[in-house]
């Protein structure tokens, strides 16, 4: 059953108070996935620390160091939509195995090159980019399988546990990575190479869990699969006409764009301002992770007390303070404490935004929505890292940090208007139509295909004048449903000679797309549909016609009369 909340509160605030937040771990499949993911994430964060510190030993340039964050984020910006489309079209289990193997091989090659000393700043950036292509293509499918592993009511706690997994790794991994690099003080390449090798091994555990997973998809279309280009278009179309999802994307981009200065410049702050080595940098990075772990384990209780907007507001203003402290305070103990709370604020925000996306879309487009979210999130990280690295390169690191703090504070009054997780959760259960799909009667001798089109659907309503205002609002809600589900044009027209006669018309690219739109129709969509129909006043139901574009036939089949001449 979907979660229900008042319009004034956050969706996830209604979780069962008897739940501890750890209920998903009682499900064996999710627990195995969580453990394997945690181990792999530890390896990833070890690599992040070792790779960034290796870059500081290869070049003194703040811009090249900041570009390590860009190399990690840019692949999601470039491939996020493609990753989401493939995860919605193909078997997610097989895709995940492939991309986990891609990352294993990419890191393995980098480990070998680093061990033998054949690595330059640009080679390090290139292999970091290749590794994160695999991560970008993996992540939408990885997050989209969550509803296949746990009941829908456990999704908020599941997202928090996934955040805890990643941030537990973020707390432990940087310190381990820094420790391994520091153990080879005079041979940074050897220490970094050892970290890369261990990270490559960590992907093997995830592959093993995936091999043993007997997947049962939540949504499986009976129709032929979309092509990748069409799948991407339909995903973008959904985002365009889903205001709640758009709000989450806007909040994610603006937040990560400015906060990226922390991740991009922390190594420079550690080396230049705090006079720390690889282990010190690992501890600073780990402080962010430790704070994030605390946040992830306490978020279920926090969500029950505060709205999503209030959580993000508090996190935003605290991170303004964090950026200013990094700019002006050079006392390691104070910086560590500040980063600990910053990690808490970071995970509180990103977990809340992730939940808002998970709960805002139906199963058929979930991976594409998550791909768009990850693309937006990492786009903010990538572009922000370039900007703050450029400013630090040409002015100073403190000025770059102050600029990001000011930007974060000044943009908040604008983006706070985009609310998230408000109102009842939509019911995305696929709707079971009571009437069969209409059939196209073929023309003898004319070769027609399901992909032919466009298709025009026309619906006539009789709406009393006193219901006109209510109908106009309801029909424009239905407009978003039609366009999200695949319509390329939509309109509502009033008869000039008969004001009670209204006609709704929408176009689909093909007959096959029209059939897909029926599959995509959810129970929540149908509530809007029923509201529109309830305002119709006539003895007969609304008249519906389905019209397929009439193509010109160059050689029509002769009629029986003409053939007898």
Automatic annotation (TrEMBL):
Membrane topology note: Multi-pass membrane protein
Keywords assigned by UniProt, alphabetized: Cell membrane, Membrane, Transmembrane, Transmembrane helix, Transport
Alphabetized InterPro entries for the sequence: MFS_dom, MFS_trans_sf, TM_effector
GO molecular function, one term: transmembrane transporter activity
Compartments reported by the entry: Cell membrane
Transmembrane segments: 63-83, 95-116, 191-211, 252-272, 278-299, 311-337, 372-391
Domain Major facilitator superfamily (MFS) profile: 29-419
GO cellular component, one term: plasma membrane
Identification of the protein by name: MFS-type transporter involved in bile tolerance (Atg22 family)
Organism: Edaphobacter aggregans
């Amino acid at each position: 059953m979907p979660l229900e909340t008042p319009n004034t509160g956050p969706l996830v605030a209604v979780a069962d108070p008897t739940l501890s937040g750890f209920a998903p771990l009682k499900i064996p499949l999710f627990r195995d996935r969580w453990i394997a993911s945690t181990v792999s994430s530890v390896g990833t964060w070890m690599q992040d620390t070792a790779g960034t510190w290796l870059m500081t030993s290869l070049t003194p340039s703040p811009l090249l160091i900041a570009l390590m964050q860009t190399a990690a984020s840019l692949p999601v910006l470039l491939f996020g939509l493609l990753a989401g489309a493939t995860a919605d079209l193909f078997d997610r289990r097989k895709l995940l195995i492939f991309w986990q193997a891609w990352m294993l091989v990419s890191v393995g090659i980098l480990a070998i090159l680093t061990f033998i000393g054949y690595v330059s700043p640009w080679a390090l950036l290139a292999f970091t980019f290749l590794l994160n292509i695999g991560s970008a293509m993996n992540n939408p499918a990885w997050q989209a399988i969550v509803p296949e592993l746990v009941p829908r009511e456990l999704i908020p706690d599941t997202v928090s546990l996934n955040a805890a997994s990643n941030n537990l790794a973020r707390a432990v991994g940087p310190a381990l990575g820094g420790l391994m690099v520091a153990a080879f003080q005079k041979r940074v390449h050897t220490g970094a190479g050892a970290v890369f090798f261990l990270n490559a091994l960590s992907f093997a555990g995830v592959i093993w869990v995936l091999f043993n997973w007997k997947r049962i998809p939540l949504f499986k279309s009976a129709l032929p699969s979309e092509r990748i280009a069409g799948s991407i278009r339909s995903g973008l179309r959904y985002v365009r006409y889903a205001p709640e999802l758009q709000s989450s994307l806007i909040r994610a981009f603006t937040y990560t764009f400015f906060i990226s200065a922390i991740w991009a410049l922390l190594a420079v702050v550690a080396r230049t301002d705090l006079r720390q080595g690889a282990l010190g940098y690992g501890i600073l990075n780990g402080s962010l992770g430790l704070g994030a772990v605390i946040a992830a384990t306490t978020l279920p209780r926090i969500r029950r007390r505060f709205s999503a907007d209030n959580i993000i507001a508090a996190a935003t203003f605290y991170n303004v303070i964090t950026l200013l402290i990094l700019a002006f305070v050079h006392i390691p103990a104070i910086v560590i404490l500040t980063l600990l709370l910053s990690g808490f604020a970071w995970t509180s925000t990103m977990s809340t935004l992730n939940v808002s996306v998970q709960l805002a879309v139906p199963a058929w487009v979930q991976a594409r929505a998550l791909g768009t979210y990850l693309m937006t999130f990492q786009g903010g990280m990538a572009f922000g890292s370039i900007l703050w690295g450029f400013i630090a390169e040409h002015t100073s690191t403190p000025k770059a940090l102050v600029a990001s703090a000011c930007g974060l504070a000044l943009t908040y009054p604008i983006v706070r208007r985009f609310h998230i997780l408000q109102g009842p959760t939509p019911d995305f259960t696929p709707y079971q139509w009571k009437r069969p799909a209409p059939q196209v009667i073929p023309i003898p001798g004319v070769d027609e295909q399901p992909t032919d089109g466009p298709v025009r659907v026309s619906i006539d309503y009789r709406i009393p004048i006193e219901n006109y205002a209510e109908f106009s609002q309801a029909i424009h809600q239905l407009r978003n449903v039609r366009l999200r589900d695949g319509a390329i044009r939509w309109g509502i027209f009033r008869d000039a000679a008969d004001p009670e006669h209204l006609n709704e018309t929408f176009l689909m690219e093909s007959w096959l797309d029209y059939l897909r739109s029926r599959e995509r129709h959810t129970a929540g969509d149908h509530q809007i549909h029923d509201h529109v129909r309830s305002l119709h006043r006539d003895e007969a139901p609304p008249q519906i016609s389905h019209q397929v574009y009439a193509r010109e036939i160059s050689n029509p089949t002769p009629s029986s009369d003409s053939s007898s001449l």
